[in-house]
Design goal:
Elements: H1 10-18, H2 30-54, H3 56-63, H4 67-89, H5 92-105, H6 109-136, H7 138-141, H8 148-174, H9 179-206, H10 211-239, H11 241-249, H12 259-277, H13 279-298, H14 303-345, H15 348-375, H16 377-384, H17 389-417, H18 421-446, H19 448-473, H20 478-506, H21 515-539, H22 542-547, H23 549-558
Helix pairs in contact: 2-9, 2-14, 3-9, 4-6, 4-8, 4-10, 4-13, 4-14, 5-6, 5-8, 5-12, 5-14, 6-8, 6-11, 6-12, 8-10, 9-10, 12-18, 13-14, 13-18, 14-15, 14-17, 15-17, 15-20, 15-21, 16-17, 16-21, 17-19, 18-19, 20-21
Length: 561
């Protein structure tokens, strides 16, 4: 264990505040910290999302003719659960990450750790209250659908434990330690998917039982996964326990904050995080409670057909698109503590630089990922579900919408990092109004795609307001962003054309309804497009500007001059 630093040695204190939990680490720039954090969070999030999508292949097979109905039921239950989970978590993890980072920058490590302990009491209490409301309020929340009730009962158990797990992730993130969060997230998903597949196989594949009961067990898997993730975080906490104690002893202890003030601080910071954190879920709930009513008033479709349509855009396509959006989520989590530190120092120039870097890095990752998903929409949808022209079209359109949602995820986190929570909430409410205004005419005209269009319009409006405010207050180097964006869009479009052309060319000779063929087409097309984007990025040195020395090593390894 490292020697305890001298409180009067500013260089030691700067080192402690930069990367306090891992010994032997050098002080790094904010860009390096953001990149390292993004790598951890992106890896954890991507692998988790892939696991959360791959299970669909056998799951759909075992549910057979009930698969679309099961997906619709799953989506209805999960949308309600997500809102309750966000309420139970209450934005506390992100608020804790922000405030812990703030206190660490002031060399008040003990105060940050005390804040975490007080937050534990809040997270446990909110988890119990929200779980009870979700469980006993299920009949009222189901909107008259009896099959939703057992699903909500199963999900209530996860609400008990996930808030405390999320709070601990936020604590580590406040120290710019993204590894514990990423690994626990992956283990959580692994345990969840394992339980889902075993129960789905036994109930539907072996015993051919009740599909509603099988869906309920698939949702109860969230509780099983939470236990796995929580155990990983507990191991990390024990690993860093001595280091945390050393940091607490090295604190300046110049700030005196009462317990009541700590609770007020947590709650004041958390409330905006609840609203912003649930933004996408709120838009999905608007779809859930309005789509069926609008379609029933303006069409003659049966309930089963409407459930199928809803399953395609709200669950099937959304499940795959969330893999792409997780790139933005990973960056968003990383940026909050870094921006909070810069805000604490009053360093407007650093804030401007970090915002510019975050937007550039987001564009470098998100745009090709979204266009790549759109290019292989047909084989991807066929592989995970079944061949469907409608499903393919919705997945392709939703892939473009994902870019808008990703931008919101990153820049709303930036607003939170710089303490502009209330303004971010106000802008979001404007977007909700836009969503409501656009929802009815667009759903009437375009049905399922209309819901996605109104979502894109609402979030695009929010994004414009946020970017305008950040630029007015701190300045965004749009010249640098535009230079990067021009290359990113050009290479991404080239990648899209190649991947789309390869996919459709291969389907001239392959069965478009075969899952094996879909897997081959998706892999070959994605590889061809991805290699083109990688080559262009390395050849033009764009990757160096985004990834630093990592890109140079990769270029040398691939012998690209």
């Amino acid at each position: 264990m490292a020697d305890q630093p001298n409180k009067n040695d500013s260089s030691d204190l700067e080192y402690i505040g930069s990367q306090p939990l891992r010994e032997g680490q050098k002080v790094t720039s904010s860009k390096s910290q953001m990149l390292e954090g993004s790598v951890w969070m992106t890896a954890g999030s991507i692998f988790s999302r892939i696991l959360g999508a791959v299970y669909i292949i056998p799951w759909v097979i075992w549910f057979g003719v009930y698969s679309n109905q099961a997906n619709a039921l799953y989506a209805k239950g999960y949308n309600i659960y997500s809102l309750f989970l966000i309420a139970a978590i209450a934005g506390i993890p992100s608020a804790i990450a922000k405030q812990v980072s703030h206190y660490n920058a002031l060399n008040e490590f003990a105060l940050g750790q005390r804040l975490y302990k007080r937050g534990l009491l809040l997270s446990v209490g909110s988890g119990i209250v929200c779980a009870l409301i979700l469980f006993y309020g299920a009949p009222f929340l189901s909107a008259g659908s009896e099959s939703v009730v057992p699903v909500l009962h199963a999900l209530a158990w996860a609400v008990l434990i996930i808030p405390t797990m999320s709070l601990t992730r936020g604590f580590f993130q406040g120290y710019q330690e993204m590894g514990p969060s990423a690994i626990s997230q992956f283990v959580e998903q692994l345990a969840r998917v394992g339980y889902m597949l075993v129960t789905a196989y036994l109930i539907m594949g072996v015993h051919h039982g009740d599909w509603v009961f099988a869906v309920s067990q698939s949702t109860f898997a969230a509780f099983i996964g939470a236990i796995g993730g929580f155990l990983v975080l507990g191991w990390y906490f024990l690993k860093y326990r001595k280091r945390l104690k050393t940091l607490a002893q090295a604190s300046s202890n110049e700030l005196v904050v009462s317990t009541g003030d700590l609770y007020r601080e947590i709650i004041a910071q958390a409330i905006p995080f609840i609203i912003i954190g649930s933004a996408i879920t709120i838009f999905q709930l608007i779809d859930q409670y309005t789509f069926f009513k609008i379609m029933q008033m303006t069409s003659s479709y049966t309930t089963d057909i409407l459930n199928t349509m809803y399953a395609i855009f709200a669950f099937n396509a959304n499940k795959l698109v969330m893999i792409v959006i997780s790139l933005a989520s990973a960056m968003a989590v990383t940026s909050v503590p870094l921006l909070s530190e810069a805000k604490t120092r009053g360093d407007s120039r650093a804030i401007s630089q970090q915002v510019t870097e975050a937007i550039s890095l987001f564009s470098f990752l998100m745009i090709p990922a979204a266009l790549g998903m759109a290019a292989i929409a047909q084989p991807a949808y066929t592989l995970f579900y079944h061949f469907s022209g409608v499903g393919t079209a919705i997945l392709e359109f939703n892939s473009y919408v994902a870019i808008v949602l990703g931008v919101f995820t990153v820049i709303s986190a930036i607003m939170q990092g710089i303490g502009e929570n209330k303004l971010a909430v106000r802008y979001f409410l404007y977007g909700v109004i836009i969503k409501f205004i656009a929802q009815i005419p667009l759903v009437m005209a375009f049905s399922a795609i209309g819901s996605l269009m109104s979502t894109a319009i609402g979030f695009a409006f929010i994004n414009w307001l946020i970017l305008k405010h950040i630029n007015d207050e701190y300045g965004i180097d749009y010249q640098v962003i535009n230079e990067h964006l021009t290359k990113i869009i050009l290479y991404s479009l080239g990648m899209f054309v190649i991947a789309w052309g390869v996919a459709h060319g291969m389907y001239l000779f392959m069965n478009n309804e075969s899952k094996v063929a879909a897997l081959i087409v998706a892999l070959v097309a994605a590889s061809a497009g991805g290699l083109f984007y990688l080559y262009c990025s390395l050849k033009s040195r764009l990757a160096d500007e985004m990834l630093g020395s990592r890109a140079s090593r990769l270029r040398n390894m691939l012998r690209i001059k």
